[in-house]
User: What shape does this take?
Amino acid sequence: MTEARLFLREPGALFWMLVFPTLLLTILGLIPSFREASPSLGGRRTIDLYVPVVLLLAAITAGIQVMPSVLTGYRERGILRRMSATPVRPAALLGAQIALHGAAAVLSMAVALVVGRLAFGVALPEQPLSYALALVLTLCSALVMGCVICSLSPSTKAAGVVGSAVFFPMMFAAGVWVPVQAMPDLLQRIVQLVPFGAASQALAQASSGHWPGWWQLAVPAAWALVLGWFAHRQSRWE
Assistant: This one.
């Protein structure tokens, strides 16, 4: 509850996690050509492709851009070291931060889905179970990636630099600048090796009513497991 109150006192972080993804979707949806069906996209509209991209952007922003600076700041100011001498273990604080940022990402995804459906007529996924599974696995990999950034960064400034260095390539892999489905075949194969590129394809499959390929779900799951193990080994409280 304490971390939630502190969390709500950061309007900048809340904007980037809760408002920016839907704002970006709204701006793109207001472009007339993005609301027209394109033969090169199989009869789909560009805005249809960007809804899953915005959902992935919410996970990337919460896990990679916002959360590492919070945890690194706690360690840099000695909060984690002091908490280690109390009944509240630092691991509980880490769990609270992961839960808060994960919940913010889920809320942001829900808002983007509603806006996409009501404002621009984007169809809801025909395979909601696999769609949700792909989002959960991808969100886990984003949050664990943020834990790795925190474990490797000696200061808040360093966490910001490292986070930005990871943030923009992951945005590209998710299809923020060019949807993955519109990329050349070779580039699609490359970005699908990272969790957000694979998740983009998984969400596209689920949206059209098909169960995603096993590898499209295995890639974000594998990243989450490997990075989780690495973050656990590298984490330090002071």
Remarks:
- Residues 2-234 form one domain.
